[in-house]
Write a structure and sequence with these properties.
single chain; alpha+beta; two-stranded antiparallel ribbon; 25% strand
């Protein structure tokens, strides 16, 4: 189970990555691109998408705002989308960024709008667990 307890501003579920380390950035890009949710359109080359993630990671070292590194989707569950976001850790940590995984579901949004009181909490918990597993697959040990 992934802990949600906060330590200062960084939760224990957050992974801090030094974007100044080229090898770490490349390993992160490889892991993301290897996952089916972030797989590239067969008509484009994998190296282009990988290089795009690396370039965004390098660029975000100089930006104070969060940067979306890549977007993906679970095509088996049509309405689920995921974003990998890099956020600044602190002013003193120039190249370090917190990597976050944000997910949403069209089905969850519709249940919320239509007042699916019974189904909403069950689906929300399922998606939360799914996101935690995906987070560990992508970022554990990076």
């Amino acid at each position: 189970m992934v802990l949600e307890r906060k330590i200062g501003e960084i939760k224990t579920t957050d992974v801090v990555v030094d974007f100044g380390d080229q090898k770490v950035v490349e390993r992160l890009a490889d892991r993301i691109m290897a996952h089916e949710y972030f797989a590239v359109d067969p008509n484009t080359e994998l190296t282009n998408a990988r290089e795009e993630i690396i370039m965004k990671a390098i660029k975000c070292r100089f930006l104070p705002d969060p940067v979306v590194l890549v977007a993906g989707a679970d095509f088996q569950n049509g309405g689920e989308t995921y974003l990998v976001i890099a956020e600044m850790v602190g002013v003193s940590d120039f190249g370090k960024r917190i990597i976050k995984l944000v997910g949403s579901s069209e089905q969850l949004r519709q249940l919320h709008q239509n007042g699916g009181l019974k189904e909403y909490p069950e689906l929300a918990e399922t998606l939360r667990r799914k996101k935690e597993i995906l987070y560990l697959k992508l970022f554990d040990g990076v």
